[in-house]
Amino acid sequence: MEHREIVDDATIRNPRLGEPAPPFEAVTTHGKLRLEDFRGSWLVMFSHPADFTPVCTTEFIAFARIHSQLREMGVELMGLSIDSVYSHIAWVRNIEEKMGIKIEFPVIADLDRAVATKYGMVMPGESRTETSRCVFIIDGKQVLRAMIYYPLTTGRNMDEILRVIQALQTADAHGVATPANWRPGDDVIIPPPGTQDAAEARVKEPGVECTDWYFCKKRL
Ligand code: BEZ
User: With a 6 A CB cut-off, is 82 part of the ligand 1 pocket?
Assistant: First the structure.
């Protein structure tokens, strides 16, 4: 793959985890939408490089297939690329006609790159004209909770996107953390105690399995 010189725009500060997601108003396939319109729901906002490209088409179909599961988890879904709304409309109609999958989520037509720039979705080392495969997971208070980036040539894994949301929602609901490769139903990690007394208490806590004072798990 060709590697290009990367010129960073020092005025652009990429979004950061745990901070408010950058607000926007955008033209979409469902009309004008603002980030604010999603307050109270979680939101998965993802970018794709371009309409009418094969990997992106497989991703749109895959996102459409998890759309109802996301909704059951209180999560809305929205796509984005630097294409016109007419291109988006033609592409989603083509996906329905040729592949039999209806795309029900809105897609931002970010022709002026306003949203892509705020979220740092264009990676000049990959492409100066397309957004990379970015996934932003935003909670109901509009705080940015996770960001996942994939290169142009790699289609995304829907199981991982679902798993990250399930892990975040479990952490929020129970004040716990989740170990590597965690799946819903697996034991969770109890954050380590911060004092000697708490460490003493932790290893005696009922319902908690400790390998050592800092490494304790429990079943929810
Ligand atoms: C694709 O979606 O097929 C694609 C888009 C940009 C670069 C490479 C592949």
Answer: no
* pTM exceeds cut of 0.85: yes
> What whole-number distance in Å separates Cα of residue 12 and Cα of residue 58?
31
Indicate whether residue 53 lines ligand 1 (CB < 6 A).
yes
Catalytic, out of 56, 134, 210, 216:
56
Structure confidence by residue, pLDDT tens digits, 54-111? 999 999 999 999 999 999 999 999 999 999 999 999 999 999 999 999 999 999 999 9
Would you call 216 a catalytic residue per the annotation? Answer: no
Please tell me the distance between residue 44's alpha carbon and the centre of ligand 1 in angstroms: 21
Show the domains of the chain with their CATH numbers: 9-155 (3.40.30.10), 175-218 (3.30.1020.10)
Mean pLDDT estimate for the chain: 95
